Amino acid sequence: MNFTKTIIHWYSINKRSLPWRETQNPYKIWLSEIILQQTQVKQGLPYYEAFVSKYPTIFNLAKAPESEVLKLWQGLGYYSRARNLHSTAKYIVNELQGNFPNTFKDIIKLKGVGDYTASAIASICFNEVTAVVDGNVYRVLSRYYNIDTPINSSKGAKEFKILAQELIDKKQPATFNQAIMEFGAKQCTPKNPDCENCPLNQSCLALSKQKTDQLPVKTKTAKAKKKHFNFLVFISSDGKTVLEKRTGKGIWQNLYQFPLIETEKSTNEKTLRNALKNNTLLYNKKFELTLYNDEPIIHKLSHQHLYTKFWIITVENIKTETIYVKDINKYPVPILIGNFIESFNFDLV
């Protein structure tokens, strides 16, 4: 059975109608690929549409303030993608006169662009014969060829890239790349793949060896660290609160948050009151303290799990720069903070 022809034929029948498949505009393809990194299509689609609507060209995106871009990105996570997206847009406009690079070797030099994204853009927009390898491709190839090399190893990355490059259709690289990714997303799914109705089931080695659920292989990563976050939600008598901009390097860089006290273990009201005695945001010791969520909200990141409590502090005055609570939704915040803001309903303050 010809793997490549079978995949392309399957795609011609089963492909989803998606807006970025209706264009070869490198700006829009690049935008879609950055959004879809670490993000499923159903979640990324409305963000893509929002970005294209607000920033129809790379010039529009380059002119936008970073805070506005981060606000539009809010909820997608991995905010470095948004910062890199904005930075690269400005670079292309200011240094390349708005001309998107048109070869793999130049595209991969862009900030926030790796082998997969560069291959996708180069093949879809410029018909360059360079294979994509994403999570879907790893899964399809590892199962079909029964490859147990860990996909998150340098050896695995090289091995699968070489294999994908051998399989790509030289005459229609864009179609093949989109076909194999779609096949992994819809047919050869992570759990409970529909092997019975798979067009490759007669030659799939993993299926014949009953190893479908064992592939692809990933080496175990370090255990996520456990952190305890206590966010201080100040509310003054004149309807103001405090949001602080995170300026240090990190996943939430340039996003806003409530003042934070990090502790080694879960904190009770007595312990937090003691911690607040010397807090510079308080004019005096007169304040009301209320725990918003009795059970910590667990926010899981790739390298750490945040056990989070939100403490409502009602005071007469706040001894720092403040914002009116009515303006709180103007600021880009991590999804953890955004969810709290939505559930707390500051409109009633």
Automatic annotation (TrEMBL):
Q: What's the protein name?
A: Adenine DNA glycosylase
Q: Which GO terms describe its molecular function?
A: 4 iron, 4 sulfur cluster binding; 8-oxo-7,8-dihydroguanine DNA N-glycosylase activity; adenine/guanine mispair binding; metal ion binding; oxidized purine DNA binding; purine-specific mismatch base pair DNA N-glycosylase activity
Protein function: Adenine glycosylase active on G-A mispairs. MutY also corrects error-prone DNA synthesis past GO lesions which are due to the oxidatively damaged form of guanine: 7,8-dihydro-8-oxoguanine (8-oxo-dGTP).
Q: Which GO terms describe its biological process?
A: base-excision repair; mismatch repair
The family annotation for this protein states:
Belongs to the Nth/MutY family.
EC no.? 3.2.2.31
- InterPro entries, per database record: A/G_AdeGlyc_MutY, DNA_glycosylase, Endonuclease3_FeS-loop_motif, HhH-GPD_domain, HhH_base_excis_C, HhH_motif, MIG/MutY, MutY_C
One of the Pfam families matching this protein, by short name:
NUDIX_4
Q: Which UniProt keywords apply?
A: 4Fe-4S, DNA damage, DNA repair, Glycosidase, Hydrolase, Iron, Iron-sulfur, Metal-binding
What SMART domains has UniProt attached to this entry? ENDO3c
Question: Cofactor note, please?
Answer: Binds 1 [4Fe-4S] cluster.
Which organism is this protein's natural source? Answer: Neotamlana sargassicola
Q: Which SUPFAM superfamilies match?
A: DNA-glycosylase, Nudix
